[in-house]
Amino acid sequence: MDMTQQLEGWLPARIHVDGGQLRVDWCHLGAQRFTDPFFDETLERRLRHPFALLFRHQTSMDALVARQARKPGLPVRGLVFHMSRCGSTLVAQLLAALPRHIMLSEAGPVDTVLRAHQHLPGVTDAQRIEWLRAVVGALGQQRHPEERAVFLKLDAWHVLELPLLQQAFPGVPWMFLYRDPVEVMASHQNHRGAHMLPGLLNPAHLGLEPGQVEGMPLDEYGARVLASICEAGLRGYLERSGPARLLDYRQLQSEGLRVLTELFGLELTAEDKPRLRDVLERNAKNPVLPFEDDTEEKARRVTSLGRALAEQWGRPVHDALEAERLRANNPA
Questions:
Q1: How far apart are CA 65 and CA 69, in angstroms?
Q2: 100, 171, 258, 270 - which has most CB atoms within 10 Å?
């Protein structure tokens, strides 16, 4: 039995560096779909099952690439980029609510291959593209008859790799979500995302020298990270060669579904509409709770320093994004 047959029903759960090479840990997902807000939550639920916990496969990255050549997986139909803390999880949940979609929401293996060049000297863009296609192809295997397409919700910092992702998935429609920088700063002051702490991102991607990061206050670093992410989203949108949309958090509840339908070519059935309404009425990150707009709460909670830094670094690019969004919606 070849490796392709041995790995039938198995998905790459984790990719790590071992001995100067990438190694792939596989998990048997069974019939479980990616319907949780985040990829890791689905894996954690699956690993509660004895079989998935006790039986594992590990292969080289070359084996994963070879498997992708034999079983390429379902086509990627959409990419979701975002500023962080701006409603992207709701977008992922809307797409995941339709059984014909495989929604990969901030999948760790995708992040590992995108940042492989930071840990393995000499890794080329061509290698990262090949690995990325292989990972997404393995995660996007059809395991249910109704599944037809794959959607990727990337981590916030992945928009810094937008040109490479467009090379990997040419012509695939994408969107960039953003929110008032003061509100996003308030969320991160309460619980900082990994990208808001020095160490995850290459300072050069932020227009910084390594020495500039040392000793920089966390709030200033975070404000500059958010600004760099938004600048990358804006730059990608202005230079786009295919379908792309900008979406502000404030428009998500009222216009989000229409934007998704138009951009990704969704053909909604009568059965789809109640599913989507249910998602819109619930807290995206904790679906047992109802949705509540926290805009005013975040505006009250942010510190005066956080507000000032968000205004200094984030406001100009936020306003530029808004201007482009409005221009696209109201062409002269």
A1: 7
A2: 100
Cα–Cα distance measured from residue 212 to residue 210, given in angstroms and rounded to the nearest whole number: 5
Question: Computed over its alpha carbons, how large is the radius of gyration of the chain?
Answer: 20
Tens place of pLDDT for every residue, the chain, 332 residues?
Answer: 455 566 778 899 999 999 899 999 998 887 889 999 999 998 888 777 655 554 678 899 999 999 999 999 999 999 999 999 999 999 999 999 999 999 999 999 999 999 999 989 999 999 999 999 999 999 999 999 999 999 999 999 999 999 999 999 999 999 999 999 999 999 999 899 999 999 999 998 888 887 899 889 999 999 999 999 999 999 999 999 999 999 999 999 999 999 999 999 999 999 998 999 999 998 888 887 888 888 888 878 899 999 999 999 999 999 999 999 999 987 75
SS3 call for 152: strand
